[in-house]
């Protein structure tokens, strides 16, 4: 196992219902848990480093009838807020969404069991993108190296061991994917493979988003 003194999550992370999460997010978790969805919300769900921004731009473009100019009107994190993201006054996904006009598009990395109940009660459209675990682990490793405020991920084999045990933000990739795979027959959930998106971009538009 990794030397805890080298890879100390306690400085940056805490847990919500047993799942590792950023401390800043956990501090305001009640705001996330009690978030009120609207029936026409579109929710983009991924495990971190699974093509979230790419999928967000595709879905936003679909909802804007292919008008590229509308997609250039603002940065992606303003057009598609990150639900649970909170950095004191700098970023506040819940606040952004509450102030947005409908229809709203939002993104989240939450496993099925942590998604606010109101999304299920309102029968919101949900798009889940699943990426191969090996590629997700590699992408996460280099992401950790890139962000100065994150703990040192150590060597790649050390990081993979933590990844396999779910000791990374948002917990186990395996449990996360399974939790959403179990919703694949829900008519309001579209489960997409990242690899299929790469092979056939035309197919990603088959969900009716409006």
SSE topology:
Layout: E1 13-16, E2 19-22, H1 23-27, H2 29-33, E3 42-46, H3 52-63, H4 68-71, H5 76-79, E4 86-87, E5 91-92, H6 93-99, E6 105-108, H7 117-121, E7 125-130, H8 133-146, H9 156-164, H10 173-181, E8 189-193, H11 194-199
Parallel strand pairs: 3-6, 3-7, 7-8
Antiparallel strand pairs: 1-2, 4-5
Descriptive notes:
The protein is α/β, with parallel strands linked by helices and 210 residues long. It has a single domain (9-204), classed as Rossmann fold. The protein is 38% helix and 15% strand. It contains 11 helices and 8 strands. The protein has helices at 23-27, 29-33, 52-63, 68-71, 76-79, 93-99, 117-121, 133-146, 156-164, 173-181, 194-199; strands at residues 13-16, 19-22, 42-46, 86-87, 91-92, 105-108, 125-130, 189-193. The protein has a 4-stranded parallel sheet, sandwiched between helices. A two-stranded antiparallel ribbon has the order 1-2. Strands 4-5 form a two-stranded antiparallel ribbon. A hairpin with a 3-residue loop joins strand 4 (86-87) and strand 5 (91-92). The longest helix is centred in the middle third of the chain and has 14 residues, at 133-146. 30% of the residues are buried. InterPro entries: P-loop_NTPase (IPR027417), Sulfotransferase_dom (IPR000863). Belongs to the sulfotransferase 1 family. Its EC number is 2.8.2.-. This is Sulfotransferase. It holds the Pfam family Sulfotransfer_1.
